[in-house]
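Regression check, pyridoxal-5'-phosphate case 324:
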Amino acid sequence: MASLENGKYAYAFSSGCAAMHACLSLLSSKQHIIASNDLYGGTYRLFEGVFKPYGIEVSYVDTTESTNILKAIKSNTKMVWIETPSNPLLKLTDLEDVAKICKNKKLISVVDNTFASPYLQTPLNFGIDIVVHSSTKYIGGHSDIIGGVVVTNNKEYASRIAFIQNSVGAVPSPFEAWLILRSVKTLSIRMEKHSSNALQIANYLSKSKYVKKLYYPTFSYEKQRKILKKQMKLPGGMVSFELDGDSKTTKKFCSKTKIFTLAESLGGVESLIDHVASMTHAYLGKKRQMEMGLKDNLIRLSVGIENVDDLIYDLEQAFKATFK
Ligand SMILES: *Cc1c(COP(=O)(O)O)cnc(C)c1O
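Current build output:
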């Protein structure tokens, strides 16, 4: 994992959540984190439900504009936590900008690189301090393991994370470590196929009369496309979109696909569909969902490596069954 991310030190954990927990253990009470406001629901839950009671503060900002990070810095700020592409709106944050700000202000920069995988993006190369992964997703790739990884070039952070790994004990079993090694052998070809399928699906959705809004980096505004070009090899396998309908219609659509399985998680060879508001991001609650722009009609696809014609046909028949 260290060599894939071009880092010196890597530590394996029993889940992505355990890996994130280890990174957050670099902080102490009364310190402050600036985090992307479009974030994996479980990261928000970890911040709010586990670290907040220990006295750690978190501000959520739109990190796609680095000036928002600068504005949010306080005297006790210690860490900047970025997700790019973000979950579920697939917004990109400029890694080089974030690394520069953090170096200047002596903050620890952390990037959750789960959505990109090290094949598509290597944040340490842009000067980021720590990369965290849920290897449950693309690195595992087969929806048969739960795991997490932390990678860094910084010796001091590495030794603290190793200490936490040993002290807390959230480590993977040998069998799961073996499964990850099996998975990594096909990471490059899987990521190529996830991305090319996702791009074709995004193209298809961009022309559909049932789609109100599409979220995919290639279809975003120019500044986002520039970031894409600068730091990602390909735009990845996740596609989100708003259906032209209410919550009920959206749930109906999600139940009509036959190849896309209705399930949380992502990054496996088989395609999944997620009703964001009631599934992956339900913990946020209505108010926070609205603040983050996560509407009832938002759907997130984890595009697998199946034949893309079958996947498009599946979406087509689900649209027809929903809107008949
Ligand atoms: C799933 C996920 C996690 C948490 O990982 P687990 O392995 O499920 O604990 C963290 N970040 C992102 C972006 C994820 O998608």
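Comparison notes: Residues 187-206 form the longest helix (20 residues). The first strand starts at residue 9 and ends at 13. No diff flagged against the previous build.
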